[in-house]
Amino acid sequence: MFLVYLGIIILLPLYAQFKVKSTYNKYARIRSTSGMTGAEVARMILDHNGLHDVKVVESKGFLSDHYNPITKIVALSPQNYHEASVAGTAVAAHEVGHAIQDKEAYAFLRFRHRLAPVANITSNASWIFIMIGLFVTSLNSLLGIGILLMAVGVLFQIVTLPVEFNASSRAMNQIVELGIIRNEEEPHAKKVLSAAAMTYVAATAVAVLELLRLVLIFTNRDD
Fold first, then answer.
1. Which of 40, 58, 83, 95 is the catalytic position?
2. Relative to the CA of 94, which of 82, 200, 208, 221 has its CA 20 to 30 Å away?
3. What is the sign, positive or negative, of the torsion defined by CA atoms of 215, 216, 220, 221?
4. pTM above 0.70, yes or no
């Protein structure tokens, strides 16, 4: 069972990363029929939704695309910002999907934003208690504290799932409604978004499994 567990926590994230990179690279080579760059797609969707105050900027690094709800900035990686591809269109629309969530006060996005600073602290601190509790069996209570702290980080990852899936759904609705992609491009855009979502699913699955493993260790010691 341990080997199965080890295989899941190692292979699942690796597969998810491989899937998103290979899918993205495939459709990044296919020029979108609209001829619009990712930056133009983002700007068009933002303006259509009345988000004129949200800026679109170029970020650094491969697939570094993100939306910052504090600065109201959609940042697109260089390839997506400058080039007109099916992949770039999908990714740009997805990030704008987060901006639309922000405008509409989407509950899961608000909750994730408020939980983020707490989760950052508890996730880092949890391993101090967990490591001490694992190696010093007489201090099992510290392991319990570590598990509780870790659970906050796991909750953050779980909450991230509906945020990401909803942003992708909004993205597809926008690029179809505005005629940015044609019918034959829809399946390709969906594949890009689905592959990206898999990385979040894999990360959450690994986090939940690790939390359950530690809970089992803790409860078995108590018995």
1. 95
2. 208
3. negative
4. yes
